[in-house]
Amino acid sequence: MTLSPGRVRLYFSCLTVSLLVVLVLSARLGAMALTYPELGGFLQEAFGVAAPSADPVAALHRGVFFEIRLPRVLLCACVGAALSMSGTLMQALFRNPIVEPGLIGTSAGAALGAAVIFVLGNSLNWANVPVLGALVLPAAAFVGALAATALVYRLSAVQGRVTVASMLLAGIAVNALAAGGTGFLSYIARDPQARSITFWNLGSFSSADWPSFYLVGLVTVLGGWAALRFAKSLNALQLGETEAQYLGINVRRLQTQVLLLNTLLVAVATATVGVIGFVGLVVPHLLRLAGFSDNRLLIMGAALLGAILMIVSDTVARTIIAPAELPIGVLTAFVGAPVFLWLLSRYQQLSSRGGFYA
Amino acid sequence: MLEANLVSYAIGEKTLLHDATLACRPGEVTVLLGPNGAGKTTLLRLLAGLYPPSTGQVLLDGHPLSSFNSTQLARQRAVMSQQIHLAFPLSVQDVVLMGRYPHFQRSPTRHDQHLAQQALADMGMSSFAGRDYSTLSGGEAQKVQMARVLAQIWEAPAQGSRVLLLDEPVSSLDVQYQHQLLQRARQLAHEQAIVVAILHDINLAVSYADRLVLLKNGHIHATLPDPAELTEPLLRDVFAVDMRLLINPYTQKPVVVVAG
């Protein structure tokens, strides 16, 4: 049940080593495969140990590595970490193991918010101001995501308890509403805009660049730091809202803060790479299978494992039908949806023994 | 002292508790008794400060509960509720350690862990430390929850009274453990804690209470400073069942029986 400190160290060492390994592997693989000596040379150049070679092929590879591959791999890691931490936070907050940003409207809300900017953005002059323009999309996604999540939470909480059934139903309704809005926008959109909405709804890292990595990275690191501060309170919340209050926790404030943090994580990730579902569901669940139960360890573990899985998924997505790319959201849905169904059937069984709420 | 002054609680149109006045003293076990829906749990929650009363005031050591910082209050006041379901698997020792949450910032100290172990041992549940809480029987879970609330107020605070509030703490326990748990509550009262418990078993209430509070239809029907003052008409009034009082020949305390 409870992991011994030795086990915890072992798991975290494994996760850290795996993350480094997949980072290197993923940076090497792709439509243009790079060799390890090349990667070593780039690293030396980056730290100023060696001078860049003048060879045109090497220069091309260097360009691919620094301008395309590296920001993409790092962005993958951050998005994976952000979505997984968000799933962990939501599951703890809703006291329900089958909650996920994609199921309760957060992602769809973010998508709608962003689609508004895709379609109407060009008619707004301030959207073209450099710094402001870069933040308009995440901000719109945040507003959409927050509205959708708050709505689902309101609809599904009966006297502070969220039941699986009501949450899934509210999630379906809000998802449908948001999808309807997004669909309407892509209908009235001119062709290239509509195409970008469609692709973006499936999720893709193909537009990854350094600025997007900086934005998502900053939000992920700050968000992770904030999430860890809530870990103890979220643990106490597992006893129920009333018991948490008896332990001195301001439950309403905690809910508001966690919901905001969570929305920020999902909105920024979604605004950058589109809708990627099921990662936030699967990652915390894998960790629980390994025996993690303390939210502090779950959050840290989710960040690492989420980063690993996202890098692996993206590597598969861009190599499996190279030189074309599979939208990553398609891949995560193929893997994640069966896991979700399996979880649902498990908790249905539990429900017949009276553990449906929790 | 934990006092309720003309406390009422209403949800919408429905008033669950009317003008309850009550004083629970350190060193005493106060037992709330009454039929279902009498307002016992509502009164206990108001005493716990879970929500503010609609009218009236609850005072702890002379200060209104609303003036306490929530962490400060949690360091001296522990509440054991009726049934607790966990959403995720959690070990028994983790659940008990939650009682120490108000006392540490990020990670439990060695001292916190030690106290949690001691509380678990106190309830005879040490061998369950590594078990998944959700696999426990109702009675085992109650003992673990008792260990958790004991760990929460194990040490007397530098100032102010310790308060232990129990909502039907023995409902799933075997006779032996009912007495074990209530004796532990009594012992805490001997250490000058304020103990308030809701009990369903009138005989248990009579044997462990220093002060009996009878509730009916959201009103405090009677407050007895000594359980020996319990009378048959009072019991019939409150419970609407024909009950008789006998004297237990072994303890010389009153025993309640139902007369046909």
Description:
- The complex is a heterodimer of chains A (358) and B (260).
- Chain A has a single domain (5-355), classed as ABC transporter involved in vitamin B12 uptake, BtuC (Orthogonal Bundle), CATH 1.10.3470.
- Chain A is mainly alpha-helical and 358 residues long.
- Chain A is globular.
- Chain A has a two-stranded antiparallel ribbon.
- Chain A has helices spanning 5-28, 36-46, 56-94, 106-120, 130-156, 164-188, 191-202, 210-237, 241-246, 251-273, 279-289, 295-319, 328-355; strands at 157-158, 161-162.
- Chain A is built from 13 helices and two strands; from the N terminus they run αααααββαααααααα.
- Chain B is an alpha/beta fold and 260 residues long.
- Chain B has a single domain, classed as Rossmann fold, CATH 3.40.50.
- Helix content of chain B is 31%, strand content 27%.
- Chain B has eight helices and twelve strands.
- Chain B has helices at 40-48, 70-76, 92-97, 110-122, 138-152, 175-190, 202-208, 232-239, and strands at 2-11, 14-24, 29-33, 55-60, 63-64, 77-80, 163-167, 194-198, 211-216, 219-224, 243-247, 254-258.
- The relative contact order of chain B is 0.17.
- The model of chain B has no long low-confidence stretch (mean pLDDT 92).
- The chains are: A mainly alpha (358), B alpha/beta (260).
- The interface between A and B is medium-sized, with 28 and 33 residues.
